[in-house]
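Hi support team,

I'm opening this ticket because the web form for multi-chain structure prediction keeps timing out on my end. I have pasted the exact lines I submitted so you can reproduce it. The total is 565 residues across two entries, so I didn't expect it to be a heavy job. Is there a limit I'm missing, or should I split the entries? Thanks in advance, R.K.
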Amino acid sequence: MLRTSNYSLVISLQFLLLVYDLFVNSFSELLRTAPVIQLVLFIIQDIAILFNIIIIFLMFFNTFVFQAGLVNLLFHKFKGTIVLSAAYLVLSIAFHVWVMNLRWKNATHFVWTDGLQALFVFQRLVAMLYCYFYKRTALHLGDPRFYQDSLWLRKEFAQVHS
Amino acid sequence: METPQQGARQCPPRALPPVPSSFILHLTDEIPLSRPKRKKPKGKNALEGIVHAAVRRPSESSEPLTPEVQDAPPQRKRKKKRMPPESETSFTQQNVPNTSFFHTGNGMDPQPSEETVIRKHRKKTKKTRPAEIRCSNELGVEEEDIIEDEQTKSPDQQLVFAAPTGASQPVSKVFVEKNRHFQAADRTELVKTTENIDVFLDVKALWTTRDVALSVHRGFRVIGLFTHGFLAGYAVWNIIVIYILAGNKLSTLSNLLEQYKALAYPAQSFLYLLLAISTVSAFDRVDLAKASVAVRGFLTLDPAAIASFLYFVALILSLSQQMTSDRINLYTPPSENGSLWTAGAEEQILQPWIVVNLVVALLVGLSWLFLSYRPELDHSEELMFHAEVEEFPQLDKGLTVQS
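Hello R.K., no limit was hit. The queue was backed up. Here is the completed structure from your submission:
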């Protein structure tokens, strides 16, 4: 059973990482006086996304549903979050690599092309969706029903094993 | 028999049984705590000797109260162990002040009365209860601890101790063992603190992970509600500033570029931040993750669904102007070398940008109106935290059909 204090701590950590992600997405363009600053911000952002994905998977593993062997059920329920998190990580890394590659020599140089603009729009849109789905999943996993036995879970388990 | 050390181990801090106020006064004020009771000078006459014999027991029984008990020599400890069990808890009858004996020196029987013995036995049986229960009960005043006058005035007693006088009364002080020493503490405060701890533990036990999630969700909804209004105001202010700087019929675009270039990128970044929070909040209200609920919301023209759509469009439009914003941010007059701007091309670039900003302002303003119409509307909370039981079996059926 998930303890309230542990859950509060995990939720705080997840929200901290999400807030950092939102902050970098919003203001990284303003902090480009030196390319190194942006590089560090981007690296930390990508690590934060990775950490968040690891944390949400650890939370999945901690549920009774998962431990009962119903992995498919859990993944089906939260597939939006899993897909969006993975997509966002890929898009972020791609955008960061592209932008840093263009700005490494001159940080205040005008680097925008149509392709970069399109990637930028996608990355920022998916960031918003990721934020929404991730927050929703993290809060949803606080439901005690994921951490205890129930009738529907027993039925499902019996169906899987029959 | 329970030693003070054992008692401390069971339920620290251990409080001693209630003591008459006169006795406490006697202990704390008159006799220094470090003085050994054995070394008291014996009385000169026979009466004094008898009285002293009668008094010594209670005073010995009070030895655990003194800080010296831990450091006392081993012989004394052995002696104490041999003492009758009554002597340790007999505060009520025998522990009268010394002065009272001098007033009533007409009897020689130092035996305690039968009633007192019975009461002590009762107390002893009470001590066998579990430590946890006793720990909290000891702080309170029990009726058994208060001895009425009728009980005390047995014939034998009257002969020896005619004026043991004062009925045992509950006092406000209790002695609590702290750091291997007994210290006087206020009874009411101790009771209060234990009650507070109980209440705190109860609240902690009731506070589940679901409550944490719900409070975080509601907290974010409040932040979102604030952000909706702030974003609407900010977008309107932004477009007003742009139109004022652009002049009548966009006649002073170079002025706009000169003035607004320092503001363009921060404004764009801030707009993204507010739009992202507002969109997430609007999605929360319509519960976009459940496609069926979201589609139903759109079809029934649910205010939250409409607002979500408008915010999403506004976000895309705003993001699409990132390139132009950077171009404005890096503005230098066209006459300068390496300028991104060519003479006469300002209007071509700026007009769509101004229109998009105007549309964004209108969209976020409308969304705010829709959401503020029913600020308490939140489908996520209803579905995530209140309707989970029905949801699981449906999901299971869907899964089995798929497989």
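A quick check on our side: DSSP finds 19 helices and two strands in chain B. Let us know if the file doesn't open in your viewer.
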